[in-house]
Design brief:
Strand content: 25-35%
Largest sheet: 5 strands, mixed
Radius of gyration: 18 Å
Distance between the termini: 61 Å
Number of helices: 4
CATH class: Alpha Beta
Low-confidence stretches: none
Number of domains: 1
Strand order of the largest sheet: 1-2-3-4-5
Order of helices and strands: HHEEEHHEE
Length: 141
């Protein structure tokens, strides 16, 4: 192998992604397609803001309602369901992210846009995905 080929091989190797992060990304992708199948219009994936710490897994419209969606993926079902991982701190982060996203809207639309916080639990077991969608999982308070 020439030195250019070896250099290209070395440069193409990025940092290894931890298994749980890969599982999460695959679950987000599966949730994206499932939500589209159910009629959601996804407008953002893994949205971040320079002003607020955190990210939103998916932002989508569902019949005129803007949904901020947190996706939790598990490879097994156990005593603690996936959605239970959306604790108070994560809910507050999502609320702050939603406020930041809505600041990109004109003032008149910001005040009248209905908003909802959903949680999608993805169970990826034996090569198949099962989805549980919790619409209005929590509110602004």
């Amino acid at each position: 192998m020439s030195w250019l080929d070896r250099l290209a091989a070395l440069l193409s190797r990025g940092p290894a992604t931890a298994a749980h992060l890969t599982t999460g990304l695959l679950g987000e992708r599966a949730a994206l397609f499932e939500l589209k199948r159910r009629g959601y219009k996804v407008v953002a994936r893994r949205w971040t803001s320079t002003r607020v710490r955190g990210d939103v897994d998916l932002i989508a419209w569902d019949r005129g309602c803007l949904c901020f969606i947190e996706v939790k993926t598990r490879t097994a079902r156990d005593m603690n369901p996936a959605e239970s991982a959306v604790d108070d701190a994560k809910r507050e982060t999502l609320r702050n992210m939603a406020r930041a996203y809505l600041r990109t809207f004109p003032q008149t639309e910001r005040a009248t846009t209905p908003v909802r916080f959903d949680v999608v639990s993805v169970y990826s077991i034996h090569g198949t995905n099962e989805f549980e969608i919790f619409k209005e999982a929590f509110g602004w308070r």
